[in-house]
Amino acid sequence: MTAVAETVLDAKTEPRPIDEAFLASVLSGLSKRQKTIESKYFYDARGSQLFDAITDLDEYYLTRAETALLKEQSAEIATLIGTGATLVEFGSGSSVKTRILLDALAALRLYVPIDISGEHLDAAAKQVAADFSLPVIPLHADYTSRFTLPHQVSRDRLVGFFPGSTIGNFEPDEAAAFLDRVRSLLGPAARLLVGADLQKDPARLEAAYDDAQGVTAAFNLNLLVRINRELGGDFSLEAFRHKALYNAEEGRVEMHLVSLADQSLSLGGRQIDFTAGETIHTENSYKYSLESFRELAQRGGWRSEAAWTDPEGLFSFHALIAE
Ligand code: AVI
Question: Which of 169, 219, 222, 316 has most ligand 1 atoms within 8 Å of CB, for mutation?
């Protein structure tokens, strides 16, 4: 057999090693009284595609509102930031929203996009460097954990960028702790630009997380597809339904997967039992008022310098200064 044929055969027969951290997290979440799966596991290749499709949905106003707000306010943001700053983006993806800022910011010194997906990051970084004739140092890291900036990045005039209301996917205590870490990372006199979805009519919020075409349902159910494929699970997709609800007491939209029957399944050598109607809680998306977001920022060591909202009052964008 030639080396090439052997390689092909190996690829077909050798199962992929199981991601033990993923398995441990799912088993621990499914053994709680309120079953949970961590929302960071939404984003495999299919999940990321589905999320991109969500951002184009009529019901999912967040991306449109934030993009319009950034376009509208970019000149004012640029005036606040001045010249010679370094922009550090947390979870940069394809840097789409960054381009709006980069168009407006004068004489930026450097752009540092941080993302967990290395391949995606390098391609997007090259494109931005070429399109804006700007030095770019991509950093492949999980921005939710502790990391340091590359040594070439001077801690002078650093501006963090965290758009998309991703801050809303943290529990408030975690969000405050994250903001505090970002402040230590960026150093004294740093600024942070953050997008945060606003509190609004619950019906509008629930529609944004339960669209008529079922894209968000597919995004939520894809967690089970991923567990079946990567961890050898035996979830039946027909036996679970997507549910989104606004929890007014907590000020958050919750996503769940509802078991449609009493059922038992096996995962990692364990049996997991569901009663009909029982749910797996898969995501929280906290919504803030301008004031409650300022309070959160303050807990993380930031003072509000400016905040903007769109004319409909759907979304907010904040400029913060390290205290
Ligand atoms: C990534 N994040 C800000 C989205 C949100 O709105 O919480 C994730 C999402 N979940 C369902 N639809 C979108």
Answer: 169
State residue 160's pLDDT score. Answer: 98
Domains of the chain: 3-60+223-286 (no CATH), 61-199+288-322 (3.40.50.150)
Scan for tokens 């943290």, then name that residue. 170
Token digits of residue 10: 């190996």
Please, which pLDDT band fits residue 5 given cuts at 50, 70 and 90? very low
Cα–Cα dist 100/293, whole Å: 23
Burial 194-210 (b: 16+ CB within 10 A, else e): bbbbbbbeeeebbbbbb
DSSP label at residue 197 = E
pLDDT tens profile 294-304: 999 999 999 99
Task: Quote the pLDDT of residue 93.
Answer: 84
Helix then strand count (H, E) for the chain reads 10, 13
* pLDDT classification of 10: cutoffs 50, 70, 90: low
- Ligand 1 centroid to Cα of residue 182, in Å, is 21
**Element (DSSP H or E) covering residue 302:** strand 302-309
Q: Reply yes or no on whether the pLDDT at 131 is more than 60.
A: yes
Ligand 1 pocket, residue 165 CB under 6 Å: yes
For the stretch 87-113, pLDDT in tens is 999 999 878 899 999 999 978 999 999
With a 6 A CB cut-off, is 283 part of the ligand 1 pocket?
A: yes
Q: What is the CA radius of gyration of the chain?
A: 21
Compute CA distances 90 → 193, 255, 281, whole Å: 11, 24, 25
**Residue 102 and residue 85 in contact, taking contact as beta carbons nearer than 8 Å:** no
Pick from 272, 273, 244, 277: which is nearest to 258 by CA? Answer: 277
Q: What would the mean pLDDT of 121-127 be, rounded to a whole number?
A: 94
C-beta 209 within 6 A of ligand 1: yes
